[in-house]
Structures are given as structure tokens and as C-alpha cells.
Amino acid sequence: MTDTRPAQPAPAGRFITIEGIDGAGKSSHVDAIAQRWTARGLVVVRTREPGGTALAETLRGLVLEQAMDPLTEALLVFAARRDHTEQVIRPALARGAVVLCDRYTDATFAYQGGGRGFDLAVLAQLEQWVQQGLQPDLTLWFDLPSELAAQRRGAARAPDRFEREQLAFFDAVRAGYARRAAADPQRVRRLDASGTPEQVAQGWQAVLASLGW
Ligand SMILES: Nc1ncnc2c1ncn2[C@@H]1O[C@H](COP(=O)(O)OP(=O)(O)O)[C@@H](O)[C@H]1O
Ligand SMILES: Cc1cn([C@H]2C[C@H](O)[C@@H](COP(=O)(O)OP(=O)(O)O)O2)c(=O)[nH]c1=O
Q: Which residue in 3, 12, 130, 194 has its CB near the most CB atoms, within 10 A?
């Protein structure tokens, strides 16, 4: 069935997402990325997926800890996304804020599509129904080999249901991100996340500078 509802009007703010396999280094850079705009007096709304609202955080707890089949998993991350998008992201963009979101739909194509092997055409339909044409203006993809990410994750934190997966799963997730980047290279910018923190920071700074952000 074709979804014929019109896309909602383009929002005024800026929507930036951060992506990568677990242990890629996203959390280590998000404060500095946000500061780039707060230093100029812009309002930055920092949020994450799955999560960002009370309902979506409840769904996050289920997705990260409960065993479930791939369709249930895909529906739950999109249900969380719908609530988050409508309650937080669209209103913030309409107010002119910078929305900086730790993961969004590229993670679904990477983890559920790549990692779990779930049908990409179904994910694309859900994406359309849930987002009604809304896409990030920019996605910073922290990319590095799965082995290196696993070493970085180490034993520092109790692994959730995804972090307990084997290297082959993360190789497939990474390939899922690469497909999304190839399909939309203007939006999804790959960063080499295998270097030192300083080198990685230079990478995202160069991308933002090239956009005049
Ligand atoms: N460039 C880097 N080089 C080496 N270790 C790093 C680098 N960036 C982050 N780390 C470390 O790797 C681990 C995972 O980083 P984190 O930022 O939590 O990743 P993510 O949020 O993508 O899962 C942390 O212990 C962090 O200190
Ligand atoms: C947004 C999203 C995340 N995930 C997974 C990826 C991560 O393993 C996990 C939560 O991501 P993350 O917030 O990066 O976890 P942490 O707080 O441990 O750094 O959820 C999906 O499988 N599908 C999705 O659509």
C-alpha cells in the first residue's frame, strides 16, 4: 500500500545524528560537538535513540534487555522513534534548535537490517510511515573495524543484548551503515574513528567547517 499523506513542512532548525557500531567513540565526542553550537548561543537539544521520551525510554529498556524476534525488535525501535520524533524532535526543530541525536534510523538499517538481516524494504516502509519525510540534515558516522570497537568496549561496562553479539554481527552492522552512506553521501559523512581522539575530532570538525556549521 502506498502512503499518500503529504510530507510535513521542512523544519526551521537543524537535525544532526551521530552513528556507529558500539564502541566507535560517539559518546566521547558528543559534548564537544554540542559545544560547537552552544558556544555561539544556539540552543542544542541533546537526545538519543531508542529513547528521548518517557515512553521511548521504556521501550529502550525492553529492546536492550529482552529476547525478541527481529520484527518485534524493528517495530519497537520505530514505535520509540515515532513518539520521540513527534514529542521532541519536530517541536525542537520548529523552535529553531539544533537537535543532536545519538543514533536515529540509520541505526535501524544497520542493526536490524544489517545485523539481524531484517527486510530492508519493510524498514523503508516503516521509515516513511514514522517520519513522514523527516531526515537528519547531517549524520556523522564514526566508522572503525569491529575488532577495534570490541577492544575499546572491553570489559568496562555490562554489555547489553547488542553488545553481547559476536564480531560477525558488528561486521554486518558496519556494512549496513556503509550502504546507508553510499545511498545518501551528502547527508551521511563517514569519519575514520580508528585514530586518536584528536584525529577523530579533526575529522568531524572538518566536516562541520566544510558546511559552514
Ligand atoms: N579515539 C579513541 N581511541 C582510543 N579509545 C577511544 C577513542 N575514542 C573513545 N575511546 C574509548 O573507547 C571506549 C568506547 O567509546 P565510547 O565513546 O563510549 O563509544 P560509543 O559511544 O560509540 O559506544 C571508551 O572507553 C572510550 O574512552
Ligand atoms: C536507534 C537504534 C539503536 N539500536 C541499538 C544500537 C545499540 O547497541 C543500542 C543502544 O545504543 P547506544 O545508545 O549507543 O548504547 P550505549 O548507551 O550502550 O552507548 O541500541 C538498534 O538496534 N536499532 C536502533 O534503531
A: 130
